[in-house]
Amino acid sequence: MPELILLESPFDGVRLIRLNRPQVLNALNSHLMNEIAAALSDYAQDDAVRVVVLTGSERAFAAGADISEMSGADANLMKNPARYAAWQQIAAFPKPLIGAVSGLALGGGLELAMTCDILIAAENARFGQPEINLGIIPGAGGTQRLTRVVGKSLAMEMVLNARMLSAEEALRAGLISSIYPPEVLLHHTLQLAKQLAARAPLALQAAKKSVAAAFETSLSQGLETERQHFGALFDSADQKEGMQAFLEKRRANWKGK
Ligand code: CO8
What we know:
257 residues; 2-enoyl-CoA Hydratase, Chain A, domain 1; single chain; 16% strand; four-stranded mixed beta sheet; alpha/beta
């Protein structure tokens, strides 16, 4: 049983992971990161799971990597690729991962949020990369994912000068796609998850991989990735079912095959 996260099944096909270290604003220690990665690894293999929602508390999604765990580290330790295994596993989760951010998403907390495919935030959300205040820089994707999403100038201000973004600013910058009052954030995020869970599972995964490719590759490679996934779906039973259902004017019955 995980100790630092809570796992729930709010609807068929939907799983909810809640970060649960409230006493330290969900600071991300290795144990917590490993538990998230392990849960996602189980969900990746479970056909009954279609979509996962990741959230924190109302006060904090996560206030960063655990500073007390990192404070005594040296370069040798922090450069060890094993330290990033959980982060990589989370980023490689093949099914849609939706982040629901209330309160603080700082440092590693924002980096974790940015591994989600869709980010929904509460009105009280605050996004920042304040590592510069500690004499370091982001180390789990903050300089790369943030820059690709919000652009160079704003990313530079956030990373070089610890500029924080409000939910409104994050929406304008393209970091999140919707804002809700804190008390209904999870409800709306779970409704979105429920809608996705009712969609064709193989197409969802192909869609995620193809959109993600836009952040990883050149346009020509990304277009090739899209073509490959698009083409491959034409060997799926769900493509036949989806188009047949359209022609017969009925609702499709997805099999995930
Ligand atoms: N790590 C450890 N403990 C934390 C963290 C953290 N990141 N953030 C908050 N806490 C703890 C506080 O120490 C405090 O504990 P205690 O009650 O025992 O003193 C408790 O949470 C509550 O925090 P505060 O009393 O400070 O609450 P405030 O409301 O006054 O302030 C802040 C909230 C502004 C968020 C403040 O806590 C703060 O500045 N926190 C640190 C934010 C930060 O710098 N985050 C970046 C961390 S570095 C990082 O994330 C690098 C990522 C690298 C990833 C690669 C890993 C392999």
